[in-house]
Every structure is written in structure tokens, then in C-alpha cells.
Amino acid sequence: MTTTLITGSNKGLGYETARQLIGAGHDVWIGARDPERGAAAAHTLGARFVQLDVTDEASVSAAVATVGELDVLVNNAGILGGTEAVGDVTAEAVRHVYETNVFGVVRVTHAFLPLLEKSAAPVVVNLGSALGSLALNSDPDTLASSFAVLAYQSSKTALNMITVQYAKAYPGMRINCVDPGYTATDFNGGGGDKTVGEGAEIVVRMASAGGDGPTGGFFNSAGPQPW
Q1: Which of the two ends of the chain, N or C, has the fewest CB atoms closer than 10 A to its terminal CB?
Q2: 105: buried, middle or exposed (CB in 10 Å: 19+, 13-18, 0-12)?
Q3: pLDDT band with cut points at 50, 70 and 90 for residue 94
Q4: How do beta strands 27-32 and 48-51 pair?
Q5: pLDDT at 24 over 90
Q6: In 3-state terms, what secondary structure has residue 208?
Q7: What is the CA radius of gyration of the chain?
Q8: Catalytic annotation, residues
Q9: How many CB atoms lie within 10 A of CB 108?
Q10: Contacts 24+ apart (CB under 8 A), 181-188
């Protein structure tokens, strides 16, 4: 059975991804900062729970010891941060978002690499966004170009490069970034035009890719996307 850990999965896209992967036969660990909410989500889904705060080194190390073995890591945990005008964004505001969206991904991936290297078909899926695509943000005809959320968007751009570098360093793993699209969750106040089921589809697809899947790419439900 494929063992999968999903960070930040007590609700939203992470929760739906867990639900779908459990249905596909994965043994899923729900990673969440809040023990009560995380344990409740795991109980409802029939998953296992591990307390995991991606911003805390001790929490991540303890989670590695608890999980023990791993085939698939889904770096789902993320925050939006502030949406103030670009000129009003401070370095501290950017640092706050990066602590989860960038450093958190590196912290978790680095910690779980030894477990993934023992897997016969290791997979890492990073939750990205079209809002982090330099190509799409530079095209005035795209929806992404109409947003200007400095900290969040730049954190997802950084995540793209992190994905590429890990994929090059570990060619035996399938490591990709995915864009679930504008999905209606608490993250955006329910304003998305996709359901969580639709948004989770590409996450589930790439998490299930196995050893024959692509690596070092950026995908949405339609296929490869520009960095």
C-alpha cells in the first residue's frame, strides 16, 4: 500500500486530496498544526494523524519519527498573507508568508527525504499556483496578470524553482508542482470557480503518478503549464 503524507490537510484542498487518495487505496497521514482539528479530520476520513507545523523544526522532526515510512509527500500547507498594495508590503510581511510557503516546503522535504529514498516509487507534489508563473503574470491577457499579491505570488514563484532543483537532484523521484486552479475554499473566502473536488484532481493525479510519471514539471488539470 502507498503511504502518503499531506501537510495542512485538516480542511480544504488537502482534506479533499486525502479523501480521494484514500479512495484510491493510499494509506494517508493527515498532517496538521492543530491536534484537535487534525485528529478529527483523520477520524472522519479513516486516515492517520500526525501533528505537523511546517514552520517548526522540532514538529517536523517528530513527524518524521511518527510516520516512519513514506512513498508520497504532498506539500499542501500554505498561507495567503496580506493583500495590501505592493508598495505597502514590508520585508517582514514577505518573510511571514515565506516561512510557510517556501521555507516550510524545504523544511518538510529535507526532513522526509531519507524516508522517500527508501521507497520503490517516491513522489513529491508541491501545491503551486498560476499566480506564481512568471510567464502568465507577464501576459496581460491572463487572469494571473490581474493579481498583485506580492508576498504570496512571489512565494509560489520561489516554489517553482525549488521544485525544479529537487527534481534535478533526485532523478529517481517524481517531483512536480501543480496548480489546482481558483478553487473555492476557506483560503480565498470561498470565491473560487472550481469545487475542491475539481481542484484536487490534479493533485491526486500527480500523487498517483508512480515511477513512470513526469518529473520537474508544472501542471494543472489541462496539462503542462509555463513556469
Answers
A1: N
A2: buried
A3: very high
A4: parallel
A5: yes
A6: coil
A7: 16
A8: 152, 156
A9: 24
A10: 181/130, 181/220, 181/221, 182/143, 183/13, 185/11, 185/12, 185/13, 186/11, 186/12, 187/12, 187/13, 187/78, 187/80, 188/80
CA distance linking residue 24 with residue 160, whole number of Å: 27
Classify 40 as helix, strand or coil: helix
Does the CA dihedral 127-179-36-49 come out positive or negative?
negative
Q: Which residue do the cell numbers 506580492 mark?
A: 150
In contact, 7 and 39? CB cutoff 8 Å: no
Give the end-to-end CA distance of the chain in Å, rounded to a whole number: 33
Residue-wise burial string across 145-179, b where 16 or more C-beta atoms lie within 10 A, e elsewhere = beeebbbbbbbbbbbbebbbebbeebeebbbbbbb
Residue 57 to residues 125, 187, 224: CA-CA distances in angstroms? 21, 24, 33
Residue 5 has pLDDT above 70, yes or no: yes
Please count the helices (runs of H) and the strands (runs of E) in the chain. 8, 8
Cell of 189: 473566502
Residue 194: pLDDT band with limits 50, 70, 90: confident
- Contacts of 16 by beta carbon, 8 Å cutoff, 6+ apart: 196, 197, 199, 200
Rounded Cα distance between 178 and 215, Å, is: 11
Residue type for position 188: N
